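writing this on my phone so excuse typos. first protein, seq and then structure
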Amino acid sequence: MTLAIPLTGDAVSPQAHKLLSAVRELVELSKGTVTVEQAAAEPVEPPLAAGPEVRLLTGSRQALLDGAALPLTRLEFDLLLYLAERPRRVFSRAQLLAAVWGYERAGERTVDVHVRRLRLKLGASVPAITTVYGVGYRLADDAHIAVLPHD
């Protein structure tokens, strides 16, 4: 199957980059390949990250917000890491309890409390977690979170 998406103009919009990333992920999940053909002479680079960036250093389990240490609890770090490693996917509270907490018997509002605390620590300038009403939570589309395996 061939899908042609005409992109005009000198710069490709951030929305077009998101669309291309989503299509690439879907194709790769089904063992397909993606070929990007561009008529422009200059290569198009993805847009620069706007706003603060969060770095999750998995080796030392540290979180940095624009280079400054961000004091997260173990569960807050694990929750943010779990969502950051699985962008564009929505998780129910029960799924998050099982994956991050390791059990399903606690009240599902436990997830809500941890998400609220995490949002407070990140501040309003870092939209990291999106609520999908009636379903659960997912990583925000415009979240700038880098997961780094080493310090």
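second protein below, same order as before
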Amino acid sequence: MNFNSHADSVVRVAVALVNALTPGERRGRPAPPPDDLAAEAAAALRSAYPNHRDVTEAEGTELAEVAARLRAVFGAVARQDIDAAARQVNALLEETRARPMLERHDGEPWHLHFHGPGGTMAGDWAASCATALAIVLGSEFGDRLGVCTAPHCDRVYVDVSRNGTRRFCSTACQNRVKTAAFRARGKGR
């Protein structure tokens, strides 16, 4: 599945921001808010854009707020409430005044950017992530956003598999669930 290379990268950034900056549970353990929002935000952005600049403390705080709003989109899709997900994305698009703009930089070919005029770094990422999620939600792949179904894990993912059957944020969670099921079957004998 490939929406377009830039949108795919921005969807990966949305996943990375949510998983890095929002508290909850990860792989059976508590996932508290990070101590250093700026460093975690920069690492999330670099997961798709390796040369992304450092993030200031204020930008890290703003990106954490964006991540919380993006998490709500993934949660709505996981609950099969696409209408709520679309409303949340539309609200972000409107607030950020996202608009498509062809840009070329850093030796890359022309590609779409989605941020609004004169925005902050966090606001530009909010606009880009909201637009990329809108592309996903507005396609036949709208159900490919999800929240891990493993017990005690609420990390998010985008399912890019051919058959669209992903249910876990990682192979670690998938293996954890399979191991627990295997052990439960063994006790039942």
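The longest strand covers residues 24-26. thats all i got for now
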